[in-house]
Write a structure and sequence with these properties.
The chain is mostly helical and 143 residues long. The protein is 63% helix and 4% strand. Strand 1 and strand 2 form a beta hairpin. The relative contact order is 0.12.
């Protein structure tokens, strides 16, 4: 059953336009692809799409975020934290994601503290959160 599903996933993605690739539940489909098919080919697929079209990286990251509700009842995307970072980097090298974010957002992603700013666009705060975690992991690896 898993092999059949894997074959359908590969066929589906080979026929999709780039704007349709990274939809809300893309991470679930990637997990099925990696678990029942070839994990390396799933990673290669994502990396190639992001390197070809860096602006897609934010759509990719947003797909890993859940929803959060504020005290006043407003529903929005949750923060990108270490768990989401880990899930996103399972299918794409963090350096590729960082470089695509840098190309898309420029120096706006370089922050010294984890951003919790609810007044900025979700895309920018998510990019900043990813980059803050990325740099923290880079610093730990160099020690």
């Amino acid at each position: 059953m898993g092999g059949v599903l894997y074959a359908r996933i590969v066929e589906y993605f080979s026929n999709q336009s780039l704007n349709d690739v990274f939809k809300h539940n893309f991470h679930i489909i990637l997990s099925i692809w990696a678990n029942y098919g070839d994990a390396d080919s799933a990673k290669t697929y994502v990396q190639e799409k992001i390197q070809q079209n860096p602006h897609l990286v934010i759509k990719y990251l947003l797909g890993f975020l859940g929803l959060a509700q504020s005290a006043d009842g407003v529903i929005r995307k949750a923060e990108l934290e270490e768990r989401e970072y880990s899930n996103a980097t399972r299918f794409c090298d963090p350096e590729i994601i960082y470089n695509a974010l840098k190309e898309t957002f420029g120096d706006h992603i370089d922050v010294t503290e984890y951003p919790y700013d609810r007044d900025m666009p979700t895309e920018l705060s998510t990019a900043q959160q990813f980059c803050w975690i990325y740099k923290r992991f880079q610093e730990q690896e160099s020690v």
